[in-house]
Amino acid sequence: MSDNLNTVYHPPAKLMRFELSSQCNYRCPFCYWQNNIDTQRYFTRDQIVMFCKELIKTRCRNINITGGEPLLLPQKYLIEVIESINSVEGINKLWVTTNGSMLYKFDLCRVLAKAGLKEAVVSIAAETDESYMMYTASTFDLNKLLQGIENAIYCGISVRVHVPLSQLGIKSFNQLEILLDKVFASGVTEAFYFGLHNSENTKDKFNELFIDPSIITDGFIKSNRWYYQETETGRPFFTDGMMRVYAPRDQIRLITQNCKSRNCGMFCQGIYSAYCIPDKQGWVLRACHKTFSDKNNEYPLDIKYLEHGQESKLYDLLLSLWGYAYEER
């Protein structure tokens, strides 16, 4: 691997993740589905447009629709969200993070593509039908998932695959290679593997299930099939000439004092992710994927800030959000 991994500094891009629902049809052992909140509170088209316009003013141009499983949302609402975001000039990238099970419905893929969705990230944690169904606690097998990926790609939605490493799923380089061959046959050319994130709420499962990503990285390094490269921004990946597999870049020190002081810069992966998430009272903006005990990185989103004439209040709130952990330089 490159000697520069310990010394390179790259100012990360900003990303806003809309967690539109925490409902999910899977029960993966390390996910936070246990905390799901059936909010039934939806943004209007005007509210989404206003939110995105103010995001752009803070130099955030990347948006991810996530969950839970966002493709379980009412189709009319999901399409309205995608169309509303795409209508805002200046958004560079919009994608959906999904477990992929709903992509098996070809008509849904067609409707999503027509609404302007160009990219989906599908999380896959196992390489065989048996282990996949065990991991997700579902009867939906891996072959159906792969067919769903083919459906999405056929409709014009590019698919990337994210692979969380786990003792119950992918825990060796050989297992990952098997999965990579399967998803490549379905049309996928980009994947990413990562270790599970630790937190106070999941530390017991983390200790039981965690797999060190360096084990997988060592497998790539020793392989005769894959060779190491870096993107222009220093992101490491392995390629066999047909597929790119991105490695975690935990060793790159990101330009942010706050994240360093909390020792969590390793989780940013070069893109600072803020969240807009539902809670029991309403909506919250969170300045990190993690929930800290002091709650100082969470900002209640007054829904009145999404009314016309309140743009400056929303803008100031977003500046506070980025300023918490994503120091401007």
Describe this entry's structure for a reader.
By secondary structure, the protein is an alpha/beta fold. It has one domain (3-325): Aldolase class I (TIM Barrel, Alpha-Beta Barrel), CATH 3.20.20.70. Helices cover 32% and strands 20% of the residues. The protein contains ten helices and twelve strands. Strands 7-8-9-6-5-4-3-2-1-10-11-12 form a twelve-stranded mixed sheet. The two termini are 29 Å apart. The relative contact order is 0.15.
- What is the overall shape? globular
Strand content: 15-25%
CATH domain topology: TIM Barrel
Annotation field: number of helices: 10
Task: Classify the secondary structure makeup into a structural class.
Answer: alpha/beta
Strand order of the largest sheet: 7-8-9-6-5-4-3-2-1-10-11-12
Number of domains: 1
Gist of the model:
This protein has helices at residues 45-57, 75-86, 106-115, 129-136, 142-154, 173-185, 203-209, 213-222, 257-261, 311-325; strands at residues 13-21, 62-67, 93-98, 119-123, 158-164, 190-194, 227-230, 236-239, 244-246, 271-278, 283-286, 298-301.
Secondary-structure blueprint of this entry?
Blueprint: E1 13-21, H1 45-57, E2 62-67, H2 75-86, E3 93-98, H3 106-115, E4 119-123, H4 129-136, H5 142-154, E5 158-164, H6 173-185, E6 190-194, H7 203-209, H8 213-222, E7 227-230, E8 236-239, E9 244-246, H9 257-261, E10 271-278, E11 283-286, E12 298-301, H10 311-325
Entry keywords:
32% helix; twelve-stranded mixed beta sheet; alpha/beta; 20% strand; 10 helices; disordered N terminus; 12 strands; TIM Barrel; 329 residues
